[in-house]
Write a sequence for this structure.
């Protein structure tokens, strides 16, 4: 236990499995942890498992004491409280199942298994264990996204007209970008870009209860080959872009559904990392886009006039911080909030606060992506098998 400004915090020791991009982001955000007001725990990264010599060297120089290339060592280490597992998708199932078998709590990376059958097996194992597991999805922690979520929950929209959500990158617009595991089915999964970006898009709509009943999927592999480091052409056989048009059933007695669209694109010229959420109803509307991260807009009819009002929510997400409300919020702040809510929820201290994605939300997202794959193959809308 440590005393910090009157509050007593417990240390949580974290072991990282997979010290790539995301593992390093965790290392960085724990340094900013003290800005969180009265958080019940204080994380410390104590161990890394990663076979890559460069990853090992990076974490060693960052002060991590236990470095190994065998993740089993972290599973059997009683001094590790929580794992963060951030490895390529073909390794998710094996490592997640081993972590569950070892009784370790963990934050899993999306898409949570390489495909739907894999996600089902992982969720079944979690459901019959007592481990605490959540799935990484940080974008909904932007203040504008949080206010949009609260606005929808307030009922201000009235009858929903339509919903659009998406995550647009231009990461692959350069045809000369070398191939990596995310562009190859055997490592990334057949769902391709939906596995990479889909959980980010699905999290907020699913938390609002908008589970689609059917999907029409437009999937596109725009750049089918890419060169490796040696200059050889290899098959880049994952979908680069996906647009899913879905129907969400309403409670209306005539069985009306409203349209919902999820876009995930690695080739969206002009977009760096545009995460957006937009919901329109008969009485109101709300929209937020990280292209314009400090503001969100609310639609209303005032004295007979249609009006979009711009709101600056400031630096206010889920967990309170010492950072002043007037300042700007960004990607690293969203990751900090995601971890703050994950560790608070694990302590039973999140209350009704918005938490990161649940394993069942990840499973539903896989069901939608699997339906989108069959829709693409049959060129027809496909029912989402939610109970199966
Ligand atoms: N939440 C987000 O915003 C976000 C962003 C990018 C990636 N991701 C997810 O994070 C996960 C990892 O992606 P990344 O971009 O960090 O990939 P990365 O390629 O940068 O890193 C993966 C790391 O895993 C290591 N690894 C491979 N086999 C291993 C093994 N057997 N044991 C331990 N480590 C092993 C690799 O050496 C590498 O260092 C994926 O599931 C991806 O979808 C999430």
């Amino acid at each position: 236990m440590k005393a910090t400004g009157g509050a007593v915090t417990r240390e949580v020791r974290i072991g990282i499995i997979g010290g790539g991009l995301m593992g390093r982001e965790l290392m960085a955000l724990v340094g900013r942890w003290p800005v969180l007001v009265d958080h019940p725990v204080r994380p410390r990264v104590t161990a890394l498992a990663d076979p890559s010599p460069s990853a090992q060297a990076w974490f060693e120089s960052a002060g991590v004491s236990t470095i190994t290339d065998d993740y089993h060592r972290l599973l059997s280490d009683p001094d590790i409280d929580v794992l963060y597992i951030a490895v390529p998708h073909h390794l998710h199932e094996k490592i997640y199942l081993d972590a569950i078998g070892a009784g370790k709590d963990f934050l899993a990376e999306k898409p949570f298994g390489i495909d739907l059958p894999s996600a089902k097996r992982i969720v079944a194992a979690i459901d019959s264990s007592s481990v605490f597991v959540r799935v990484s999805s940080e974008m909904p922690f932007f203040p504008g996204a949080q206010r949009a979520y609260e606005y929808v929950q307030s009922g201000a929209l009235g009858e929903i007209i339509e919903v659009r959500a998406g995550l647009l990158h231009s990461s692959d617009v350069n045809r000369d970008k070398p191939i990596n595991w995310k562009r190859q089915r055997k490592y990334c999964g057949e769902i391709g870009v939906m596995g990479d970006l889909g959980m980010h898009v699905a999290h907020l709509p699913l938390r609002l209860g908008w589970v689609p009943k059917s999907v029409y999927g437009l999937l596109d592999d725009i750049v089918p080959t890419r060169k490796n480091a040696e200059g050889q052409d290899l098959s880049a056989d994952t979908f680069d872009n996906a647009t899913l048009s879905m129907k969400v059933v309403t409670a209306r007695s005539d069985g009306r559904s409203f349209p919902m669209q999820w876009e995930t694109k690695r080739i969206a010229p002009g977009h760096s990392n545009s995460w957006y959420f937009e919901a329109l109803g008969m009485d109101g509307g709300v929209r937020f886009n990280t292209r314009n991260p400090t503001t969100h807009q609310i639609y209303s009819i005032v004295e007979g006039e249609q009006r979009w009002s711009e709101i600056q929510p400031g630096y206010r997400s889920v967990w309170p911080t010492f950072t002043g409300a007037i300042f700007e919020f960004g990607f690293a702040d969203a990751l900090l909030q995601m971890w703050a809510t994950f560790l608070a929820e694990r302590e039973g201290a999140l209350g009704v606060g918005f938490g990161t994605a649940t394993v069942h939300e990840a499973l539903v997202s896989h069901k939608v992506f699997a339906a989108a794959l069959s829709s693409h193959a049959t060129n027809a809308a496909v029912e989402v098998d939610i109970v199966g």
About this structure: The pocket of nicotinamide-adenine-dinucleotide is lined by residues 17-22, 49-52, 55, 71, 86-89, 91, 109-110, 136, 138, 196 (CB under 6 Å).
